Automatic annotation (TrEMBL):
It comes from the Bacteria. Belongs to the short-chain dehydrogenases/reductases (SDR) family. GO terms for molecular function: oxidoreductase activity, acting on the CH-OH group of donors, NAD or NADP as acceptor. GO terms for biological process: bile acid metabolic process. SMART domains: PKS_KR. InterPro entries: KR_dom, NAD(P)-bd_dom_sf, Sc_DH/Rdtase_CS, SDR_fam. This is SDR family oxidoreductase. SUPFAM superfamilies: NAD(P)-binding Rossmann-fold domains (SSF51735). Residues 7-185 form the Ketoreductase domain. Keywords: Oxidoreductase. Pfam families: adh_short_C2. Gene3D superfamilies: NAD(P)-binding Rossmann-like Domain.
Amino acid sequence: MTDWQGKKVLIAGGASGIGAATAEAYRRAGAVTAVFDIAYAADTIAEDRIELAVDLADAAAVEAAFERLWAHWDALDVLVNNAGVELVASLEETSEAAWDRVMNVNLKSMFLCCKAALPRLKASGGNIVNTASQLAFVGAASFTAYTASKAAVVNFTRSLALETAAAGVRVNCVCPGAIDTPLLRRQFTGRLGPQGSLDDLVGMHPLGRLGRPEEIAACILFLSGGAASFVTGSAMLADGGYTIH
Ligand SMILES: NC(=O)c1ccc[n+]([C@@H]2O[C@H](COP(=O)([O-])OP(=O)(O)OC[C@H]3O[C@@H](n4cnc5c(N)ncnc54)[C@H](O)[C@@H]3O)[C@@H](O)[C@H]2O)c1
C-alpha cells in the first residue's frame, strides 16, 4: 500500500472527467494535488490543492505555470498527463489547425510537462502516468488525428521509461475505453458519432457499459503507487474488453 499522506501530485488536465476524478481520488487518499487546466476561470491556491489556468499546448504558458507551482511546492511525487481533446472528422474535413491542436494538446503537452517536472521527480524518486486510449491500438474512422496522437503517447511512454529507469523514475500509461465524461458526451451531441449511437458504442465494449471516471482514476493511482513498483513502460488497458477482438 502506498502512503499518499502529504505526497504531491500534479495533474495536467484535471478540471473535469477522468482528471477531476483522479485528483479527487488522490486527495481522498491523503495527497495534495495541483491541477493545470485551460477550463479554470481563475487560479486557486489552497492548503490541499492548487488549480492553475493553463493552456498546456502553449510552451510559454506551461513554463510560467511550473514557475508558479514551484513557488508553493519544493517537491513533486507524481505527474499525471491527462489533458486531451477529441476530434471527430474525416481526414478530408480535418484542417491543419485542427490536426495541430489535437497533437499539441494530446502529445506535446506531455513533452512539455515531463521536461519541466523530471528534475523534481528524479529528486523524489517519483513517477509519471500518461493517459492514452484504447484507440492507441485499433483504428477508428473519423479519428485519424486522435488515434495517431494516442498511439504516439504509448511509444512516448515506453521511450521515456527507458530514459529515466536508471534514475528510478517509472513512466506508464493508462488506456481507457469509452468512459462517461463530458468529452465522450460531446461526441454524441448534435449528430451521431461515427460509431452510430451511444448504445452502439456501449455495444462495442464486451462488459456492456461505459466506464466510469473513478475506474480510470483507480488505475492511475495503482500505476503511480508502491504496488506497481516493478511496472514501467506499460500501457494498461482499462477498456471493458473493447480491444479483445
Ligand atoms: N472519455 C473517454 O471515453 C476517453 C477514452 C480514452 C481516453 N480518454 C482520454 O482521457 C483524458 C481525459 O478525458 P476525459 O474524457 O476526462 O475528458 P474531459 O473533457 O472531461 O477532460 C479533459 C480535460 O482536459 C482539459 N484540457 C483540454 N485541452 C486543454 C489544454 N489545451 N490545456 C489544459 N487543459 C486542457 C479540459 O479542460 C478537461 O478538463 C483525455 O486525454 C482523453 O483523450 C478519454
